Amino acid sequence: MRRFSKVLIFLAACGAALVLTIRQGGDGLHVGADPNLRAAPRGASTKYDLSQLPIFSKTLFYVRENYFDKNRLDPKRMLVGSLDFVQRDVPEILIDRWPERDPKQVTVKVNGQQRVFSIEKVDAPWTLRSTLQEIFRFVQPNLQPVPEKEEARRLVEIEMAATNGMLYTLDPHSVLLDVETYKDMRTQTQGKFGGLGIVIEMDKKNRITVKRPMPDTPAIRVGLKAKDHIVRINNESTMNMTLNEAVERLRGDVDTTVDVYVEREGLAGSKKFTITRAFIRPPAIDPAPRVLTVPAGPGQVVSQAGPPAKVGYFHMQHFSANSASDLSDALALFDKEHVRGIIMDLRGNPGGLYEQAQKVSDAFIKSGTLVSMVGVGGAQRKDETATDSGHEPNVPVAVLVNQNSASASEIVAGALKNLDRGVIIGEDTFGKGSVQVLFDIQSPVPFGDKSEDDKLGLKLTTAQYLTPGDVSIQGVGVVPDIETVPMLVQKEGERSWIRLQSSAHKRREADYEWHLDHPSARHGEKPMEEVSYLLAPKPGDKKHAHDEDETPVDDDDDEDAAADDADQKTDFLMEFARDFLAQAKGIRRHELLAAAKPFLDKVHAAEDKKLSQALEKLGVDWSMAPVTAGAPPGADAGHGQARRGEGGGRNQRQDPRAGEERRQRHRLPRARLAGERQPGVRRERDGVRQDRARRVEVVRPGGEGAGVVLHAHGRHQGDAVFGAAGERRPRRGDAEHRGQGAPALRLHVPDGGRR
Q1: For residues 110 and 92, is the Cβ–Cβ distance under 8 A?
Q2: How many Cβ atoms are within 10 Å of 440's Cβ, its own excluded?
Q3: 134-163 b/e with 16+ CB inside 10 Å = b?
Q4: Of 497, 687, 470, 482, which Cα lies nearest the Cα of 572?
Q5: Which H/E stretch holds residue 10?
Q6: Distance CA 566, CA 541 (A)
Q7: DSSP secondary structure letter of residue 285
Q8: Is residue 25 part of a domain?
Q9: What is the total count of domains within the chain?
Q10: What pLDDT does residue 720 have?
């Protein structure tokens, strides 16, 4: 026995090590099988106990171990956030806090029952969890009864609401995605899925309509066409079906079939199409890249001895697994066509794969740090550097951006700007510069036939990224070199609309509650140049939402006609960038901007003329007002006389970064009605609608932490993600946002007031 005594003692010690928990006070790590922060095992046969908090516990564990800024963890605030979200999502639960700002207790009311809970001692993750457990032990038995098969899912949704409320107090981008959202995200972000190859939308009559079939897909091979109205999918009517529900039914495993019934103009009744699903590879560049021909005109350099200059153009819709390969094909086309410049359109691009943003940037840049990822306290840092492949295009580059360009788009724009490779044109971008890690959390109850896929996705902020020069865009975005400002002059019936200024405020990252900051962000940076242009309504566009209570005119025919050749149309920014690149003499950003003045002067003069002509049609005199007697030189006269000098109606001011003169367009000279007739004028808000781009991309395979994804802006957008799986889709704060608009002048011009 003595011979085995040491062995037995050793085995007993190992067994004890498996069940003992080592704890450290404060925010220190818990090691071992701490039941307070581990998810309960999944079991479909047992009744779901909300107070066990398996989802909340697992999430709290990841937050404590991986969140990038531990100073933002406030347990009491996190608990209050959890209760606020539960109250918001569950009508039968009401929460009263006292006092409101820094509560010491909460009163929980459920269907006429109530109890007071003290939260004064909630100062650590385990006290946060234990207090929420106590609250849920009171909540669950007092909820309204529901059918047994729905009970578990309802309780999971309550726990998810509490979890998301906790995450909401950390930052705008940490979130727990539900099973359906997470599954759809993985499908979307892999760069291919089983489907038909059609883009569908909901028309004004709430009919599911084919917007367009994709080239070389099952849909186009069987004969589906744009404007087909899908009335039935298999044996299910689409009458009350949402767009997401239709997408779910149209997609499926490769080589399976689906029956699609459509109504088409000119056909009686509905027509049935039996379509076999195939792998669909949505293009990252859509529409297809094309070559723009520069017309002869002011500001263009067109050789009289040769053909017109050509400029390549592509619109990167999102950064998916296909982005780098699609860009390679586009660059091959541009090289074959011998273009004089390349326009990269990132307007409305919500982001996507972090690694794809690196590759797209690297395609244009020979050397330098493209982007840096900085973790907790700056201790963990990873620099991504450019490689000289020898195939980078040797032509100037212009990048078009707007307020909806976010995350991965901002990485690319920031790299090309800060490394002196491209000129940025448009608006300030969204300003999303944080990185999220993606963690899988198994759902405690099954949600579908394949229960092994029932995973929740935790997206947790673990780092921030920096553009070249260690400059953060967090909260400020990428400031364009040339800012473009659309002006609107339009008459609708007896009312005339004039908008000469851009919105004073648009919804951006810094507007979100609990948004992040970074000390290297360049607050107050200004564009080098500003170009105002007259916004030309699209053909058939008879609606402008000047008032939120106005109903747009329903004119499907005009819209359809305008959409038929939309892929070949250009807008002002495309034409401006095309002509700007065509007359360029160098390829570096500083060279392009230094030589831009003559071209910009011609553009300013042309747009001034368009504006004056448009206003004259409304009976508004846009000529210069006389200088007020005794006014100092350069002072404005009357309503705001424009100081016209060499720049043709623009002021001169110093650029704080380079010390060079820069011109700012003065947009509000004195406006007078012909015959000095003054109409009624009232100031209004220019509502700015922020449509969400819902694309979110895939991560590299290979286990947790294998890849990085950047999504679009918004709480469900604009997130950089490491993770073992992809992600996607709407989340809290998913409503459309309207920013505070710039003042707009509405001029009611009677017929007698026209010239």
Answers
A1: yes
A2: 14
A3: ebbeebbebbeeeeeeebbbbbbebbbbbb
A4: 482
A5: helix 2-19
A6: 13
A7: B
A8: no
A9: 3
A10: 34
Per-residue H/E/C for 556-586 = HHHHHHHHHCHHHCCCHHHHHHHHHHHCCCC
Q: Hey, what are 213's tokens?
A: 């079939």
| Chain centre to alpha carbon of residue 36 | 36
pLDDT at 649: 38
Position 54, amino acid: P
CATH of the domain at 500: 3.90.226.10
Which residue in the block uniquely carries the two structure tokens 């623009």?
650
For residue 611, is it within any domain?
Answer: no
Parallel, antiparallel or unpaired: strands 397-401 and 342-345: parallel
Fill in the amino acid letter for 69. D
Non-local (6+) Cβ contacts of 725 within 8 A are: 182, 186, 438, 440, 455, 457, 699
Q: Are residues 298 and 218 in the same domain?
A: no
Give the tens place of pLDDT for each residue, 598-614: 999 999 999 999 999 99
Which structural domain, as residue segments, surrounds residue 590?
A: 290-541+570-602+735-739
CA distance 618 to 749: 7
365 shares its domain with 477: yes
For residues 537 and 558, give the distance between their C-alpha atoms in angstroms, rounded to a whole number: 12
pLDDT for 628? 59
Which residue, 228, 260, 280, sits at the end of a domain?
280
**Overall pTM surpassing 0.85 (yes/no):** no
DSSP three-state, residue 501:
coil
Supply the pLDDT for residue 410.
Answer: 96
149 part of a folded domain: yes
Among 542, 543, 498, 552, residue whose Cα is nearest residue 686: 498
**Residue 69: exposed, middle, or buried by beta-carbon count in 10 A (0-12, 13-18, 19+)?**
middle
Structure tokens at 391: 């195939």
pLDDT of 126 = 92
Same domain, 458 and 405: yes
Domain identity same for 300 and 271: no
Q: How far is CA 402 from CA 188, 321, 690, in A?
A: 24, 23, 11
Q: Is residue 345 part of a domain?
A: yes
Q: Cα separation of 605 and 660, whole Å?
A: 22
Helices (H), 492-632: 556-564, 572-582, 589-594, 597-617
- Do 359 and 444 fall within a single domain? yes
Nearest to 433 by CA among 363, 359, 520: 520
* Residue in the block written with tokens 């990485």: 411
**Spans of the chain, pLDDT less than 50:** 1, 4, 6-45, 298-300, 302-303, 305, 539-540, 542-564, 634-755
Q: How much is the pLDDT for 436?
A: 82
- d(CA 685, CA 690) in angstroms, rounded, equals 15
Task: Check: CB of residue 465 under 8 Å from CB of residue 442.
Answer: no
Name residue 359's amino acid: K
* Interatomic CA distance for residues 477 and 658, integer angstroms: 20
Domain boundary among 170, 205, 229: 170
Q: Are residues 240 and 322 in the same domain?
A: no
Statement to judge: residues 245 and 343 lie in one domain: no
| Encoded tokens for 46 | 């047992």
Same domain, 156 and 276: no
